[in-house]
């Protein structure tokens, strides 16, 4: 069984928002709906300052608080680690929105809650998520963490000391690993 | 919307949390006084039983209206997710509603006896088997008449833990979320429970003193009932002051996210609502008025002051308003406080 994960290299992101647009196209989202966002942060004072972009999307946690709190079982985690929402079971109580520390869940116009799905229909056929393939600087790296020959497994093996989870203190055990500046 | 702070639970959730507390509190206090003195505090017990089912009924309507897909709310009732506080709570509310309606029925005056009412129904209705069974069967006969007080006692005994759980659950629902630093505080369920009991007491006192009026009650009856309700309320006020202070303490004695979230009520935009309305108006003002009413009885062992409906009205309404404002502040502040990224 595959175990999907992603690496996001914050140092490469230039803030072009192509991943957001690609995601909206892929998932038929309206222009004010999105499954990923860039957290922009500024450090220091002119002239010694820097600005970084942190791409954030569903972390597909191994200990997902949204799945724990869902009262109908609509939010669930698949065997391969992808966290999904069963659209027909979601009653729209918004409890999962309150539970998610990453603020990535949105209410669709149709009344159910949705979020990044790791482009599951591409991934099942061996493809890659749209946000990764569209990125011009190669910020994202997606693949099977269990396959030692995969690009992502080798990247993690080489750079383990540089990778950190986002909001790791929430004990969510994210499947997305950040390479921080 | 994504990644930003936005309000997804609006005031309807605050209303629900408040009225669920009123229901749970009214039931718990009614059951408590039933055991403290069946004959002595009969009026308090009866009024509590009359109040208990209805605020929650209104709250459930609010809750369902707040769903994005209200037509699918039945999906809550076909599953039990043991890890989800909301799913457990939904089932808890079902149990509580059933108990409170049975309790309500048992306290109705004798002319509402169902067996009696059915006997007066037209004879033609006997064609329906269910109706015939109800009319002739032993169920309704058992539910009334025979040992009514014993039945009330059993329901009250089962209802005390259930109503306390409902009061706690409203706080645990919010407190279980690690991602929301303002809510993720072990004192929040305690604060909500004490506030629930307090608003339940106030609603009994309001209906008893103001709405029902004192016509037909002897001075002694008024005094004993008022004495017990004010004594319970006084005790709960002290507990709720402690709970509020420990809640704020808990926010500061926690990681950075919580301490920054505390800023919302310590100088932030909810400072006046929290300290001015929920604490001073909702706790300190009624507490001082109650002390004024109880002092002659406790200190000099004199009889209680003459019943003053204005005083009771101010006490009960300010407790109820304070209880709602507390829920309102907690619901909104919790959504505006964000876990700080590292």
Molecular structure report:
The complex is a heterodimer of chains A (181) and B (342). Chain A has 181 residues and is of the alpha+beta class. Chain A has six helices and ten strands; from the N terminus they run βαββαββαββααβαββ. In chain A, the strands form four sheets. Chain A has a four-stranded mixed β-sheet with strand order 8-1-10-9. Chain A has a two-stranded antiparallel sheet with strand order 2-3. In chain A, strands 4-5 form a two-stranded antiparallel ribbon. The radius of gyration of chain A is 16 Å and the shape is globular. The model of chain A has no long low-confidence stretch (mean pLDDT 91). Chain B is mainly α. In chain B, helix 12 packs antiparallel against helix 13. Chain B is flat, with a radius of gyration of 22 Å. In chain B, 43% of the residues are buried. The model of chain B has no long low-confidence stretch (mean pLDDT 87). Classes of the chains: A alpha+beta (181), B mainly alpha (342). The interface between A and B is large, with 43 and 36 residues.
Quick gist of this model?
The complex is a heterodimer of chains A (181) and B (342). Chain A has helices at 18-26, 65-69, 95-99, 120-123, 130-134, 151-159, and strands spanning 4-9, 37-45, 48-56, 75-77, 83-85, 106-107, 113-114, 140-144, 163-164, 176-179.
């Amino acid at each position: 069984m595959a175990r999907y994960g992603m690496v996001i290299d914050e140092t490469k992101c230039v803030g072009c928002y192509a991943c957001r647009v690609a995601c909206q196209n892929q998932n038929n989202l309206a222009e004010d709906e999105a499954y990923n966002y860039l957290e922009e942060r500024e450090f220091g004072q002119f002239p010694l300052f820097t600005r970084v972009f942190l791409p954030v999307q569903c972390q597909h946690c191994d200990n997902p608080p949204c799945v724990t709190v869902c009262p109908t079982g609509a939010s669930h985690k698949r065997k391969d680690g992808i966290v999904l929402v069963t659209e027909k079971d979601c009653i729209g109580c918004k409890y999962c929105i309150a539970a998610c520390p990453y603020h990535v869940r949105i209410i669709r116009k149709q009344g159910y809650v949705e979020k990044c799905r790791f482009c599951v229909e591409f991934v099942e056929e061996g493809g890659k998520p749209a946000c990764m393939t569209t990125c011009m600087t190669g910020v994202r790296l997606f693949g099977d963490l269990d396959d030692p020959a995969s690009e992502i497994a080798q990247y993690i093996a080489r750079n383990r000391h540089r990778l950190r989870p986002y909001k790791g203190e929430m004990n969510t055990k994210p499947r997305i690993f950040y390479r921080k500046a | 919307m994504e990644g930003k702070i936005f309000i997804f639970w609006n005031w309807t959730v605050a209303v629900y949390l408040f009225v669920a507390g009123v229901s749970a509190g009214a039931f718990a206090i009614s059951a408590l006084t039933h055991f403290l003195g069946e004959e002595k505090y009969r009026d308090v017990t009866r009024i509590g039983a009359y109040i208990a089912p209805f605020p929650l009924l209104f709250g459930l309507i609010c809750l369902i209206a707040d769903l994005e897909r209200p037509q699918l709310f039945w999906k809550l009732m076909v599953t039990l997710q043991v890890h989800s506080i909301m799913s457990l709570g939904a089932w808890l509310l079902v149990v509580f509603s059933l108990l409170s309606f049975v309790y309500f029925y048992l306290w109705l005056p004798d002319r509402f006896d169902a067996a009696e009412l059915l006997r007066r129904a037209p004879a033609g209705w006997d064609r329906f088997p269910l109706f015939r069974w109800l009319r002739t069967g032993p169920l309704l006969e058992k539910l009334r008449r025979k040992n009514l007080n014993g039945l009330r006692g059993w329901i009250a005994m089962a209802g005390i833990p259930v109503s306390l759980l409902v009061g706690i659950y409203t706080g645990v629902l919010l407190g279980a979320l690690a991602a929301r630093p303002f809510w993720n505080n072990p004192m929040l369920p305690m604060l909500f429970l004490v506030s629930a009991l307090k608003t339940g007491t106030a609603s009994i006192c309001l209906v008893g003193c103001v709405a029902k009026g004192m016509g037909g009650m002897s001075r002694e009856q008024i005094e004993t009932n008022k004495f017990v309700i004010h004594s319970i309320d006084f005790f709960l006020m002290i507990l709720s002051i402690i709970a509020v202070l420990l809640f704020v303490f808990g926010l500061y004695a926690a990681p950075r996210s919580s301490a920054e979230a505390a800023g919302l009520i310590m100088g932030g935009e909810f400072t006046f609502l929290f300290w001015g309305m929920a604490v001073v108006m909702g706790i300190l003002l009624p507490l001082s008025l109650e002390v004024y009413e109880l002092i002659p009885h406790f200190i000099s062992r004199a009889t209680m002051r003459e019943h003053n409906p204005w005083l009771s009205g101010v006490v009960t309404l300010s407790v109820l308003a304070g209880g709602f404002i507390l829920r309102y502040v907690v619901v909104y502040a919790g959504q505006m406080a964000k876990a700080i990224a590292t």
